[in-house]
């Protein structure tokens, strides 16, 4: 789920019109696919239920009940599967050489930008579930009054944390391998 230097995930790189002069995309990622587990289960249950019910009730009467079951299944499919997938697909985190951007939204796109030069602290958390799946939450505090930005369910969190930390050190003029800290 993470794209490395210069690569993008499914063409979801930062738009050139949003880039600052001299800025390059370092990494683009979205949350771990574990967030799609429940929508996948909903899809399976809907497929089995609709596949079982539509032929059984569709043969009775004039078939209106079968169409109603199919319509209810379609609405549940959109609400329980399609919308969560679109939310996951369109929610991206982009790390550039100068800033970290969060972009999300299906119809209304919103975003938050943190310049790396303003970042004070970079930390990560991994619960047992995250450790098993290889993901975690990256917490970034900057010099603003806003609460720290929490990037939840980031795949390969340690590598992403190292990359962000190295870029922050570069922005602050600190040596990358300063062991005395």
UniProtKB/TrEMBL annotation:
Pfam families: bPH_2. The keyword NADP does not apply. It comes from the Bacteria. Residues 88-162 form the YdbS-like PH domain. Keywords: Membrane, Transmembrane, Transmembrane helix. The chain crosses the membrane at residues 35-54, 66-90. This is PH domain-containing protein. It comes from Aeromicrobium yanjiei.
């Amino acid at each position: 789920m993470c794209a490395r230097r210069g690569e993008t995930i499914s063409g979801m790189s930062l738009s050139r019109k949003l880039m600052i002069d001299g800025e390059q995309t370092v990494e683009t990622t979205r949350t771990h696919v574990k967030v799609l587990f429940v929508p996948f289960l909903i899809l399976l249950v809907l497929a089995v239920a609709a596949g079982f019910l539509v032929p059984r009730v569709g043969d009775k009467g004039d078939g209106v009940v079968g169409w109603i079951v199919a319509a209810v299944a379609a609405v549940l499919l959109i609400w329980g599967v399609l919308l969560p997938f679109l939310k996951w697909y369109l929610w991206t985190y982009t790390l550039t050489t100068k800033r970290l951007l969060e972009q999300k939204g299906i119809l209304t796109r919103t975003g938050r930008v943190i310049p790396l030069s303003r970042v004070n602290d970079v930390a990560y958390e991994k619960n047992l579930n995250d450790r098993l799946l290889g993901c975690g939450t990256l917490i970034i505090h900057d010099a603003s009054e806003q609460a720290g930005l929490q990037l939840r369910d980031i795949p390969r969190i340690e590598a992403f944390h190292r990359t962000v930390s190295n870029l922050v050190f570069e922005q602050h003029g600190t040596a990358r391998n300063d062991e005395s800290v």
